[in-house]
Amino acid sequence: MKTIQKLQDAPKPFALKDTYVPAVEAARAAADDQGSEPSAEDNDDEIPVPPKGRKRKNLDLAPDGKPWDYAGVRSAFLKQQRDEKGLKFQAAKLLWDQSDTKRNYLKDVSLQELKRRKFVPKGATTNPWAD
Hints:
Blueprint: H1 2-9, H2 17-34, H3 70-85, H4 89-97, H5 100-106, H6 111-116
């Protein structure tokens, strides 16, 4: 019962426009008197927009310029090995890790890209699949 009484005594919410609309209207009226729109420099309450960072080049391309499809190449290899040789998934994965297909796919990828995609650790200095 006490909770219901507390809820009835709670302050009523106010309309959001009651807080900022009068200030905006006053600024517009003052600007109309001067004959120009209020500028962003006049409004110190605005949050400055941070500058955008450098645009990254399209890193979703394989070294040969085709779209990056490592997962597709890997799954096709695994499926082929499992179908042709009747291997289990773990055995096919071991073959993939040692295969020339994987080496050929990753040999021309830059070290930066390999680090970004977590093929090599951050401290690596060379591409382990490069010739």
